[in-house]
Amino acid sequence: MAADAERWRAPSSAGASSPDAPQAAPWLATSHNRQAPETNSPRALRRITGNSILDGKDRTVSPESYSSFQNEIYLQGLLTEQVPELTTDLQALEDTARQALSPSAYGYVAGGAGGGATVRANREALDRRRVVPRMLRDVGTRDLSRTVLGTRMPAPVALAPVGVLSIVHPDGELAVARAAAKAGLPMVLSTASSYTLEEVAEASGEGSSRWFQLYWPKDREVTVSMLQRAEAAGYHTLVITLDTWLLGWRPTDLDRAYLPFLQRTGIANYLSDPAFLAGLDKPVEEDPLAAVAHWADMFADPTKTWQDLAFIREHWSGPIVLKGVLHADDARRARDEGMDGIVVSNHGGRQVDGAVAALDALPEVVDAVGGELAVLFDSGVRTGADVVKALALGADSVLIGRTYAYGLASGGEEGVTHVLRCLLAELDLTVALSGHRSPDELGPDLLAG
Ligand SMILES: Cc1cc2nc3c(=O)[nH]c(=O)nc-3n(C[C@H](O)[C@H](O)[C@H](O)COP(=O)(O)O)c2cc1C
């Protein structure tokens, strides 16, 4: 854990959970288990499931019993002959998403840079590591919670910034924000969201943990305006993405000439920004192409250097995290520039084809700055077992990206909730079955390969 983790406290006005807040996470009932089955023995059911899950009401699943989701599924099958509407194999959920999405939207989400070498490498690096379980260690009671940069998480999992989610589902980021809030997990909202950051903040509700990701615009006034809006809307942690000053070469999208931003999808935060609008000669409705061109001009600035970070520090009062770090020297530089955290990430293989797998970069980065900076991780994570592997290699917390986007495509908000429940259940089970009670007990010796 980062040494300064306790330094940051989410502002209470943002409604973020305090470190001592209860860790219960209310889940929505999925449609297939809303009906109360006929039974004379609710106590017996409770003993099996650990929760009163079959009473037809919204229920609360405490993080201590994430794994009871599987009992719920089996019991549901026994009593009602119903099976889950979506697969519990989160790697297979991509197929469901593919069927639900247009080829362009599916290609945009699933595609990677170039020939996809880094997309494959991310998975290969996770698959190569194998867990070596330990036995007879009393894992009856477990606590997966962690505090990262002042954000108390019931499990060390957050939702990565994924832009343009309205191409995946009409409710887009609003649905994701609701599902994340119900799970008590932080959502990192992308600058490139389909809804404005204020709309997403409202959807996430009181008590949610709001992080904002910045694609750092060329225009300083627009940058400051967005940061001010984000703080005013209760976002308390800033994630600056460093690896996307230019879009990577993405043949899947290029072959379809498909870039949603050009259709004004995913630029809601710009089109609602007073500083951005001030730079237009005409209102957006009168000259939409000019608005898109203005966006393209300022989307990112490849001339930025480490010195420029001081400007952001001046305009953001909470923790700052740099996303896209893959080299130990860059991690040290982030520390020296006074940053609070980094995300070891290759953007899910979407930027540099042939880039190192993010998991292979993680150990060196942790060696360089672990304990001084919060080290978060993403790229390729699909399952609870993947989360365990990244934690074992020193990540303080793990972000999931495409995994929840596939849930969104397959079932909207309930699809995202399904993904989170499956992932957290498998995470809990893997921690337990490998002989551990908390993420703090996981270390590199857990892994072979
Ligand atoms: C469709 C899509 C859109 C994304 N948009 C953003 C974004 O707006 N900002 C950002 O920092 N990262 C973005 N990412 C990268 C994710 O934050 C994350 O690094 C990546 O999804 C991790 O890889 P994985 O999905 O294979 O786990 C995007 C990823 C995808 C798949």
Explain what you see:
39% of the residues lie in helices and 11% in strands. The longest helix is centred in the last third of the chain and has 32 residues. The chain has two domains: 69 residues, no CATH class; 356 residues, Alpha-Beta Barrel (TIM Barrel), CATH 3.20.20.70. It has an eight-stranded parallel beta sheet. α6 packs parallel to α17 and α14 crosses α15. A hairpin with a 2-residue loop joins β4 and β5. It has 449 residues and is of the alpha/beta class. The chain binds flavin mononucleotide.
Averaged pLDDT: 90
* Strand portion: 5-15%
List the ions, cofactors and other small molecules found in this model: flavin mononucleotide
Question: In this structure, how is the largest beta sheet organized?
Answer: 8 strands, parallel
Structural class, by secondary structure, is alpha/beta
Molecular shape: globular
Low-pLDDT windows of residues = 1-40, 51-61
Question: What's the number of structural domains?
Answer: 2
The CATH class of the largest domain: Alpha Beta
- What is the assigned CATH homologous superfamily of the largest domain? Aldolase class I
The share of residues in helices is 25-40%
From the coordinates shown, what is the CATH architecture of the largest domain? Alpha-Beta Barrel
According to DSSP, the number of beta strands is 14
| Spatial strand sequence of the major β-sheet | 6-13-12-11-10-9-8-7
- How many helices? 17
Distance between the termini: 24 Å
CATH fold field value of the largest domain:
TIM Barrel
What radius of gyration results from the CA coordinates? 21 Å
Cofactor: FMN
Family: Belongs to the FMN-dependent alpha-hydroxy acid dehydrogenase family.
Protein name: Isopentenyl diphosphate isomerase/L-lactate dehydrogenase-like FMN-dependent dehydrogenase
Keywords: Flavoprotein, FMN, Isomerase, Oxidoreductase
